[in-house]
Amino acid sequence: MACIKPDGSLTPSAKALLSSIGEPLSPEEIAAQLNQPLFKVRSILREMVNAGLAVAVDEKYRLTAKGKEKLS
Amino acid sequence: MEQVSATQESNMARLPRLGEPAPQFEAVTTHGDIKLDDFKGSWLILFSHPADFTPVCTTEFIGFAQIHPKLREMNCELLGLSIDSVYSHIAWVRNIEQKLKQKITFPVIADLNKDIATKFGMIMPGESKTETSRCVFVIDDKQILRAMIYYPLTTGRSMDEILRLIQALQTSDKHGVATPANWKPGEKVIVPPPKTQEMAEERVRDDNVECKDWYFCKRKLQ
């Protein structure tokens, strides 16, 4: 996985993205907030959802409990 | 020269078509797993190079990196591809940054099983059966394939032309015009020719365009 290291910790870009979705945000809003290209945000979000760290709700993304724990 | 079977030929040389949706794919890249879908809403230049750690390809990567900021201003992303491993890609882009002082800011696909190369017809068996040729696919923000450039292994591509191509396509989309040979931004554009006699008669009387004849008219963009 590109965003989760072998030891289970997050890469800087993954941490930054998860930290930005305390309130639910769309991929476009996340990209604007982080000044990152949209394709990269979508790719990271997919990995975060697959890892159970984020969840999509009505085309916006928010942290899961597991995601909050990962950030703390 | 070794003969290529009909099956091999059909597997290697399938070309996508302009004006149709670009073939979808999911890829391992130097920026993680990426889908073509991820680029919806942006234009994309998907380009292939024959091999990492080769000199012409290195000059092209530097060229692409140098035009990347300008492309981003135009809502256009870059995505490279070769039939090399992601480890080779990582080593090569680090080498370019360390030795040639150019950071490579775009992802590069590691297409080891030639899946994407085959979908896009990037392999030219007459040149090489194991390397992609120098291909460029311009995909718009709706994921429609808009232009293709194919260059041989021997000849590096022109970044000026690739930039010009994006500018021309986006100008055509925005203003409903075409662009003449050698067009550069700021120059007059081609007004689409009239499709009826009535429109042709109107066209030659239109003071807002400059016509050599009813079918051949240019105008300045506002």
Task: Tag the structure with descriptive keywords.
heterodimer, A: 72 residues, mainly alpha, two-stranded antiparallel sheet, 2 strands, B: 222 residues, alpha+beta, five-stranded mixed sheet, three-stranded antiparallel sheet, 6 helices, elongated
Offer a quick outline of the entry.
The complex is a heterodimer of chains A (72) and B (222). In chain A, 51% of the residues lie in helices and 11% in strands.
Describe the model:
The complex is a heterodimer of chains A (72) and B (222). With 72 residues, chain A is mainly α. In chain A, β1 (54-57) and β2 form a beta hairpin. The mean pLDDT of chain A is 93. In chain A, α1 (12-20) packs across α3 (38-50) and α2 (27-34) packs across α3 (38-50). A two-stranded antiparallel ribbon of chain A has the order 1-2. Chain A is globular. Chain A has helices at residues 12-20, 27-34, 38-50, 65-71, and strands spanning 54-57, 60-63. Chain B has 222 residues and is α+β, with helices and mostly antiparallel strands. Chain B has helices at 6-12, 55-73, 86-100, 115-119, 159-175, 197-205; strands at residues 26-29, 32-35, 43-48, 76-82, 108-110, 134-139, 145-151, 189-191, 210-213, 216-219. In chain B, the strands form 3 sheets. Chain B has a 5-stranded mixed β-sheet, with helices on one face. Chain B has a 3-stranded antiparallel β-sheet with strand order 8-10-9, with no helix packed on it. In chain B, 28% of the residues are buried. The chains are: A mainly alpha (72), B alpha+beta (222). At the A-B interface, α3 of A face β2 of B.
